Amino acid sequence: MKATIVIPAYNAVETLPLTLQALNRQEATGFEVVVVDDASTDDTSQAARDHAGMLDLRVLRCRENRGRAQARNFGVEQARSEIILLLDSDIEPSPGYLSAHLALHESLERAVGIGALRYPPYLANQALARYNATRGGAKVPPGQELPGRYFISGLASFPKALFEAAGKFDPRFSFYGEDQELGLRFKKLGAHLRYVREAVGYHHHLRPLKEMLDLLEIYGRESIPRILELHPEFAAELFVDDLFVDSTNSPITRLGRRLAAAGIFYRPLASFAHKYSSGWLPPPLLTYLIWAAYRRGFAVSLITNS
């Protein structure tokens, strides 16, 4: 068996069939699918079993909701293959998705593949969809190493042994950030993170911009402190290192960043972006809003925990 595709699913009865149907159209063969139903309250498990005749598929149901990190860990533990692909239950992989990941692992040891996230036509023209499709590995020249922070689990692949050596997903993350933190550990183990442009997946879920910014503030408050506890050097990559008492940033840098993230600028710009998010927005504006949102959340955590 060439690979195991692990799909964590929670109340995914509407999107999971699209994902499984797309897996049935893969160019590559000889793979198994493990669906981890994370204690859904709908018919997610049955929706998966309906495709058992088309795929080498197992459905594992958790008795209680464990969250994304533990659901993925559980699925990988049950995998029968050495090469693991993680796929979200609302992503429709292209026919070449699996073969592109397998080609990477055949050519490079200790590789971690990150697929190309795209959106279906009914979402693709929204500002956030356009923006997301150009971020992360899409910014990097072909074949170039990616930083650990670019690791996203929805379209990822890696050797099972490397995942176990890294310590798997940290289940203490209850609100996003678990994939980013694992990517940092992968890099410290000497893994090669590569963007797999041909491994395209169409995401059938796009949050409204306002909701995404609200979630980023929570991510900054709840997840960034844990990431920095494990990887303090990552503060500079997040551009939040100036918030610490022992910051080595210049006074001008500290003042400039704090003014930039202040509500007097952030709130009206966020309101403007939300109003026009169904069309086109300047990418630098979205980059700013994302940074300011998680930074504001992280600043709250510093005050709360001081």
Question: Please, could you describe this protein's structure?
Answer:
- With about 300 residues, the chain is of the alpha/beta class.
- The protein has helices at about 15-25, 45-50, 70-75, 95-105, 120-125, 125-130, 160-165, 180-190, 210-220, 225-230, 235-240, 250-260, 265-275, 285-305, and strands at about 5-10, 30-35, 55-60, 85, 90-95, 110-120, 155-160, 190-205.
- Helix 9 runs parallel beside helix 14 (about 285-305) and helix 13 packs across helix 14.
- The protein has an eight-stranded mixed β-sheet with strand order 3-2-1-4-7-6-8-5, with helices on both faces.
Label this structure with key terms.
single chain; 306 residues; alpha/beta; Spore Coat Polysaccharide Biosynthesis Protein SpsA, Chain A; 2 domains; eight-stranded mixed beta sheet; 14 helices; 44% helix; 16% strand; globular
User: CATH homologous superfamily of the largest domain, by name?
Assistant: Spore Coat Polysaccharide Biosynthesis Protein SpsA, Chain A
Q: State Rg.
A: 20 Å
Succession of helices and strands = EHEHEHEEHEHHEHHEHHHHHH
The computed structural class is: alpha/beta
- How many strands? 8
**Spatial arrangement of strands, main beta sheet:** 3-2-1-4-7-6-8-5
Proportion of beta-strand residues: 15-25%
- Note the overall shape: globular
Distance between the termini: 52 Å
Q: What CATH architecture of the largest domain do you see?
A: Alpha-Beta Complex
* Low-confidence segments: none
Helix content: 40-55%
* Biggest sheet layout: 8 strands, mixed
Q: How many structural domains does the protein architecture include? A: 2
